[in-house]
């Protein structure tokens, strides 16, 4: 049925094509033949093209098709071979499975036997070296025994990560066994040779080191052998843990080289003999005895260590080891052990504890400054920074400092200068309490500045800042009691002390030590707040963790508070002097300036006498009681106040005749200004306002009228100021200058 349907569809399509071509116009059917021929030709062309597409395949496509066919064939062949091999393997496994089952236990046994063989080989190697050491010792070839021991130690380093724990344990025990034997043998030999050369070299002894070659050569040989007799690091640490002491629990000690230990041993015995037990030299009140003894031993043996022992270390290849430093490390341990033994009892007595701290600090300072003991190594300061000891140290230090401040401020000479009778050096007039407080702070700094840890130094710094604020509060309390007498001895002494303290603190800010502390303080973590009482809230607020700023210092807040106190006290003195002078100035302010005639013969006006005498007395008092820098500042401020007062209360509040103007000028230039002539060569420079006012008051009438005209004109401010400057007037503004001119009676006011 498909064929007839296809024919029918073709007919329908043909009808549609003809209909679409010719439509309903019958006349157009005459072109049907040509349409047929055209369509037939098109069909033939399409058939030809289809025929060419079928047979004319490009060579590349043809080659690709061939390759694909060959690949398919190869794949089929390989698949067949794979199936065959897989079948053969399965069959072979079936055949071999019984054999494998039989051989597997045998292989396991062989592997186990190989492990036993290797294990026994290691044991045999260890025993062989052990026998070599034994043989060498029996034939007194100690150097050979030491060499064999070194190879045994190297073998342990190779095997130390092995999982054979029993073998490692056997190796450890063997090493320690021979180590102890060799160490004892060489130690006894070294002790004998050291006695021969006169070790230890005590300064008070009459004996001197042997100079003959034989004893020296023997000691050198034994010393070098002991240098080679070193335990592997892991074994050394393990052995150290077994002999744990208080010091080794608290601190890390690198073990001394064996021969250096033996150099220290006779001195350790002497130290124990003298400074332990019931000996009179074991006196807790005299820690300087054992500190001094150790320093003497270092001094006595330095030359021998530098010249003789250092050479042996370099021969053995220990180039990075300093003989004297190693020796000092051994002696420092003696000191630390003694301090640790005494401290539990000493800490109960504040004075004994403080004395021990002072001596330990001095000892540590001597080690580093005199004998070049390297920083970072164990020292007496380590004992003082054990938490319980350090807390006690801070507690007692603060208590004694507060007691010292109490004594300073309650002293009958607290507000007197120690150099009051020596005028040449007493320019600062520092009161005794102020200077002693700075000495106290310096002493505390000297005690903690060599602490190895920044954290511990910062704890002391915090205490110093608290003491600084405490002292400031005490000064404020005393100052308030004497504020009514601003030029009294006590008030001025407090001001001198405050000025001195701020100057010293500013100097400290620039020292390397406090700059470093500022860095550590700025970068240390901020401690969580635990609440603060009212007094704490008054303390400085800039704390740790704020970030390091090069222009800041640890004393910035303390300096700011002292500066504020100083400014307040300066204002009180200035106010007191100014008000006193002004109180005596009323007759002068009300003087008959407009009625005075120009007599030509001038003298100090009567109303000015009392005022200037009071001013002179205050200047003399300030000069006598204030430090030179403070006095210079005060008289300059007082001069400025007087100049302003004379302008505003005398000149601008009165009218002046020519005689009155000349009298005022005479009073100022010949009497007021000279009061300051003792303190400066050009006092008029500090009275610019009143001096310029006098210039305008005494200006000739014509010039005064022209100047006033300029000042009252519409000229610019710059032109008015230029006109004033031409007359030497720089300080007065144009308006004030006009007001001064208008106070003249010989100028008509418009």
Verbal overview:
This protein has 750 residues and is mostly helical. The model is unreliable at 1-5, 204-213 and 529-544 (pLDDT under 50). It is flat, with a radius of gyration of 54 Å. It starts with a helix and ends in an 8-residue tail after the last helix. Helix 17 packs antiparallel against helix 19 (556-583), helix 19 (556-583) runs antiparallel to helix 21 (606-625) and helix 23 (658-675) packs antiparallel against helix 24. The protein contains 27 helices and no strands. The protein has helices at residues 2-22, 32-55, 59-138, 142-159, 165-197, 213-228, 233-242, 246-250, 258-275, 287-315, 323-346, 350-370, 380-384, 387-410, 432-448, 454-481, 489-509, 512-523, 556-583, 586-589, 606-625, 628-651, 658-675, 688-697, 701-712, 717-726, 734-742. Helix content is 72%, strand content 0%.
Give the helix level as a range of percent: over 70%
Question: What spatial form do the alpha-carbon principal axes imply?
Answer: flat
**Strand content bin:** under 5%
- Describe the largest sheet: none
Question: What is the end-to-end distance?
Answer: 137 Å
Low-confidence stretches: 1-5, 204-213, 529-544
On the 0 to 100 scale, the average pLDDT is 85
Protein structure class: mainly alpha
The value of Rg in angstroms is 54 Å
SS element count, helices: 27
Number of strands: 0
Order of helical and strand elements = HHHHHHHHHHHHHHHHHHHHHHHHHHH
């Amino acid at each position: 049925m498909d064929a007839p349907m296809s024919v029918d569809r073709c007919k329908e399509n043909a009808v549609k094509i003809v209909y679409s071509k010719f439509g309903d116009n019958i006349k157009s059917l005459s072109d049907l033949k040509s349409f047929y021929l055209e369509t037939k030709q098109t069909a033939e062309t399409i058939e030809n093209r289809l025929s060419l597409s079928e047979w004319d395949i490009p060579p590349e496509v043809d080659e690709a098709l061939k390759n694909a066919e060959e690949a398919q064939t190869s794949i089929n062949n390989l698949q067949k071979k794979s199936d065959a091999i897989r079948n053969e393997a399965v069959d072979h496994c079936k055949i071999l499975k019984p054999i494998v089952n039989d051989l597997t236990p045998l292989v396991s046994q062989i592997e186990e036997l190989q492990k036993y063989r290797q294990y026994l080989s290691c044991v045999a190697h260890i025993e062989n070296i052990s026998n070599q050491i034994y043989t060498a010792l029996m034939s007194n070839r100690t150097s050979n025994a030491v060499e064999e021991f070194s190879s045994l130690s190297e073998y342990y380093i190779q095997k130390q990560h092995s999982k054979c724990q029993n073998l490692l344990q056997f190796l450890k025990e063997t090493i320690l066994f021979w180590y102890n034997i060799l160490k004892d043998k060489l130690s006894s030999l070294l002790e004998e040779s050291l006695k021969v050369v006169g070790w230890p070299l005590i300064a008070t002894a009459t004996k001197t080191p042997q100079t003959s070659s034989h004893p020296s050569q023997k000691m050198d040989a034994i010393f070098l052998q002991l240098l080679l007799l070193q335990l592997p690091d892991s074994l050394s640490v393990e052995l150290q843990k077994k002999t744990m002491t208080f010091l080794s629990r608290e601190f890390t000690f690198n073990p001394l080289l064996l021969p250096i230990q033996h150099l220290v041993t006779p001195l350790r015995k002497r130290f124990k003999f003298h400074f332990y037990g019931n000996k009179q030299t074991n006196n807790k009140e005299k820690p300087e005895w054992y500190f001094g003894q150790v320093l003497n031993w270092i001094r006595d043996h330095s030359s021998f260590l530098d010249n003789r022992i250092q050479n042996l270390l370099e021969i053995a290849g220990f180039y990075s080891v300093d003989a004297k430093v190693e020796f000092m490390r051994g002696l420092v341990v003696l000191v630390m052990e003694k301090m640790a033994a005494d401290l539990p009892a000493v800490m109960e007595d504040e004075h004994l504890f403080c004395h021990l701290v002072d001596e330990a600090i001095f000892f540590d300072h001597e080690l580093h400054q005199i004998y070049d003991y390297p920083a970072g190594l164990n020292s007496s300061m380590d004992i003082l920074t054990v938490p319980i000891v350090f807390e006690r140290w801070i507690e007692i230090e603060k208590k004694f400092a507060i007691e010292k401040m109490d004594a300073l401020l309650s002293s009958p000479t607290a507000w007197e200068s120690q150099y009051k009778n020596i005028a040449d050096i007493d320019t600062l007039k520092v009161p005794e309490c102020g200077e002693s407080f700075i000495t106290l702070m310096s002493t505390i700094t000297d005690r903690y500045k060599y602490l190895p840890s920044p954290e511990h130094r910062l704890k002391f710094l915090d205490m110093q800042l608290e003491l600084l604020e405490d002292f400031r509060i005490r000064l404020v309390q005393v100052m308030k009691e004497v504020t009514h007498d601003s030029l009294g001895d006590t008030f001025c002494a407090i001001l001198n002390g405050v000025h001195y303290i701020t100057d010293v603190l500013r100097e400290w800010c620039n020292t390397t030590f406090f700059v470093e502390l500022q860095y550590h303080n700025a970068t240390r973590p901020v401690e969580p707040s635990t609440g603060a009482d009212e007094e704490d809230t008054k303390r400085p607020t800039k704390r740790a963790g704020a970030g390091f700023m090069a222009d800041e210092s640890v004393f910035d807040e303390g300096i700011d508070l002292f500066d504020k106190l100083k400014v307040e006290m300066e204002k009180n003195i200035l106010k007191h002097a100014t008000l006193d002078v002004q109180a005596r100035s009323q007759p002068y302010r009300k003087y008959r300036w407009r009625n005075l005639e120009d007599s030509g013969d001038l003298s100090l006006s009567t109303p000015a006498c009392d005022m200037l005498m009071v001013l002179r007395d205050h200047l003399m008092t300030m000069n006598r009681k204030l430090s030179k820098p403070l006095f210079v500042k005060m008289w300059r401020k007082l001069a400025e106040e007087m100049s302003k007062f004379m302008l505003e209360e005398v000149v601008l509040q009165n009218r002046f005749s020519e005689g009155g103007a000349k009298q005022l000028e005479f009073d100022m230039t010949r009497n007021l200004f000279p009061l300051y002539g003792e303190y400066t060569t050009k006092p008029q420079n500090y009275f610019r306002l009143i001096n310029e006012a006098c210039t305008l008051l005494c200006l000739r009438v014509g010039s005064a009228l022209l100047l006033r005209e300029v000042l009252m004109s519409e000229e610019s401010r710059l032109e008015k100021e230029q006109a004033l400057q031409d007359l030497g007037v720089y300080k007065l503004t144009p308006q004030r200058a006009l007001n001064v001119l208008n106070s003249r009676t010989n100028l008509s006011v418009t």
